[in-house]
Amino acid sequence: MAKRHKHDAETAADLRPMRFRGGGFAVRPPRVAALVVFLVAVALWEVAARLGWVEAARLPAPSTVLATLWDLGGTGELWRHIGASLARLAVGWSIGAVAGLVIGLVIGLWSVARAVGLPAVSALYPIPHIALLPLLLHWLAITDLAIIATVALGAFLPIASAVYDGMDAVPRNLIRMGQSFGLPRRAILWNIVLPGARPTILTGIRNSTAIALILLVGAEMVSSDRGIGWFVLSAGRAQTADRLLAGLVVLAILGMAIGFLLSMLERWLLRWR
After folding, report:
1. Distance (Å, rounded) from C-alpha 1 to C-alpha 227?
2. Nearest CA to 169 among 117, 204, 207, 211?
3. Mean of pLDDT values over 116-130
4. What is the rounded distance in angstroms from the CA atom of residue 176 to the CA atom of residue 191?
């Protein structure tokens, strides 16, 4: 009898649902963690500035920086610099992105183009792009065109590299399967190769925007009299820490906004994952 009860208990235990263990190392960070840490850091900064633990001339309180931002926005000065930077970034990045997509696609598809283009891209990629600014200034003079060309070059190389790397990473058995079903070359490209390369291409686009923003700021510091880069440099030279930090806050907000838009684009294009 005891053995029967024991057997029934073991059977009931075996029938209990098992906890799913196939999470696949999925990372699920708490949504409010970053906000809480940020608010705590800003509060500590405010307290330290108000109590005199840090020198206000070197590190003004967050409230002072926000007041400076408000004043700059009210006078229109801030918007003029933001507008100039965004125009240069949009034009330069668009030119570089389109060129990178086209050249990367050509290198990925044709052997002769790969033999010629791949060494050129590989040789240019390790060069710090801002180091090419003096050469562009020599060719194009100190104009917006030199800044746009610098941004375009910085956006072109990561995207071109990501396109042909992503195309090379597509499993060849999928391409052979499409060929065995008699699909034309164009159908294989649009339905197999490019969808398979899409995650790598999107990573290249994300990297290119970060590089383009860095190059924009650096180029504006060197060869412009307007823009966020010039604003930050002029504030540093004048030793006005509140204006300097206000410019850095604008750059941080701009970077986060671009990152947010790219994340939305990635979720839409990779929704099948």
Report:
1. 87
2. 204
3. 78
4. 13
Which amino acid is it at 215? Answer: L
With 0-12 / 13-18 / 19 or more C-beta atoms within 10 angstroms meaning exposed / middle / buried, residue 249 is middle
DSSP string covering 246-272, please?
HHHHHHHHHHHHHHHHHHHHHHHHTTT
Q: What is the DSSP letter of 22?
A: -
- What value does the mean pLDDT take over residues 39-47? 86
Q: 79 with 63: CB under 8 angstroms?
A: no
Query: In degrees to the nearest 10, what's the CA dihedral of 232, 235, 240, 246?
Result: -30
Contacts of 265 (CB under 8 A, 6+ apart): 202
Would you state the structure tokens that stand for residue 32, as one six-digit string? 């409010």
Q: Does residue 14 surpass a pLDDT of 70?
A: no
Residue (of 158, 226, 167, 225) closest to 195 by Cα position: 167
* C-beta neighbour count of 23 within 10 angstroms: 8
Q: Indicate left, alpha or beta for 110 from its phi (over 0: left) and psi (-120 to 50: alpha).
A: beta
Which of 7-11, 128-132, 202-206, 266-270 is the most confident on average? 202-206
The predicted model gives 34-45 an average pLDDT of 84
75-99 pLDDT, tens digit each: 888 899 999 999 999 999 999 999 9
For residue 37, CA distances in Å to 34, 43, 134, 222 come to: 5, 10, 41, 35
Is residue 243 packed enough to be buried (19+ CB in 10 Å), middle (13-18) or exposed (0-12)?
buried
Please identify which residue in the block is written with the tokens 């604008």.
Answer: 250
